[in-house]
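Internal tracking record. Fields below are filled automatically when a chain is submitted to the structure queue. Please do not edit lines marked as system-generated. If the sequence contains nonstandard residues, flag them in the REMARKS field before resubmitting.
Queue: standard
Priority: normal
Entity type: single polypeptide chain
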Amino acid sequence: MVLPSSVDEDAAVAAAERAGGPLSPHDMVLLLARAKAEAVASVTPDLDGFVLGGDSAFELDGAVFGKPHLPEVARERWLAQRGRTGLLHSGHWLVDARSRQPEGGAPARSGQASRGTGAVATASVTFAADITDHEIDAYIATGEPLEVAGAFTIDSLGGPFIERIDGDPSTVVGLSLPTLRGLLRRAGVALPDLWNR
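SYSTEM-GENERATED OUTPUT FOLLOWS
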């Protein structure tokens, strides 16, 4: 089940930077993934399972790019990244919100406490050098790149413009499956135990 969080991402990043200085892309996506997971876990008292929060950002030449929202911003980014390689950082935070049955007592809700674990997966993404302005404009006109980190996808219309991915491809989609498996293992759960078969 997908439950959106009400986290104000800009405010969360600003508060963290006021407290400790500028955040690296790695630290930023982990902070936001954690904030989202904990926000959902705290407002869903009947939850009995895991909450996974995620956030992604694309880094090119040390600058971090989130969702462009506007076509002109997406076009500017595509012109800058055409033929180049950047890093897609995907933060994950897993909150264990399963019911616990203490000896002789009522179940305790783990979602009310901040019990969780997180990790960041990073993959490098190389864009084709021969992408034409027409292809960029046509892609942006679909609206797909406006609401995704870095203004691109690999699992839909943007995929043909990606020449190479070094690292886990699911990281670029926004949910690194090997990273999720590792987080579940830290929580004492084997991934096959969650398969609905």
